[in-house]
Each structure stands twice: as C-alpha cells, then as structure tokens.
Design goal:
60s Ribosomal Protein L30, Chain: A; YjgF/YER057c/UK114; six-stranded mixed beta sheet; alpha+beta; RidA
C-alpha cells in the first residue's frame, strides 16, 4: 500500500503528482524547487538562498511523514549550472551529518521547472 504525503508547509504540486509517497517504511519525495510556500514566490536571488529554500521544503515533507534528514538514504540533485556545485553542496551539506550522509548523484541539466537553478529529490527509510 502507498500513502500520499502532502503538507501545506511545502509548495503545492504544479502537476499530476504529490509531494511524497510513503510505501511501507520508504518515503519517495518529488523533486522540490525553491518556491516559498508562504507566498508562492520563487527564491532565486542567489544559489545559496535557492538551495536553502529547496532543503527547507524537503524538510517539511520529511516532517509530515514523521522523518528527518537522518532517515534520508539517497538524494538526486539536478543543477542548471555545475559551476554552482560548491555553493549548493555547502548548503546541502549543512543539513546532514557527514558521517551518515546519504548516497547521491548530482546531474547538470538543460532546464528545470520554472527555469530554477536547482531541484532536489530524496528517498528516506524509517
């Protein structure tokens, strides 16, 4: 069985998907971009703030599912410009304990939804 996870503390989906799906003890999040859920505006003034908003959106989805970043086992990071990797990685890394950080891949792509600079999805296990 799957359980749909949605919270008003993260941006509402902009298509036919949910913020996350819980299947057994495994949570699969949809990719999050830097939409501020309080006002619906994109945070794009700098890559650090954009990445922080993405991580905060993911944090609220994890919380809604009763999980934390410590439960995350895999992340996928999609970036518009690999030259932003170091800045993204610094913000991303602040949400994890280096000794227990998840596996991940980082992929440069041509475009992302709403032409943002970074999108991140996660898999977490309780």
């Amino acid at each position: 069985m799957k359980k749909i996870i949605n919270t008003q503390n993260a941006p509402a989906p902009i298509g036919p998907y949910n913020q996350a799906v819980l299947s057994g003890n495994t949570l699969y999040t949809s990719g999050q971009i830097a939409i501020n859920p309080k006002n619906g505006e994109l945070v794009t003034n700098c890559i650090e703030d954009e990445t922080k908003q993405v991580m905060e959106n993911l944090k609220t989805v994890l919380t809604e599912a009763g999980m934390t970043f410590e439960h995350v086992v895999k992340t996928s990071i999609f970036v518009k410009n690999m030259n932003d990797f170091t800045k993204i990685n610094t913000v991303y890394g602040s949400y994890f304990n280096a000794d227990t950080a998840p596996a991940r891949e980082t992929v440069e792509v041509g475009n992302l939804p709403k032409f943002v600079n970074v999108e991140i999805s996660m898999i977490a296990i309780k």
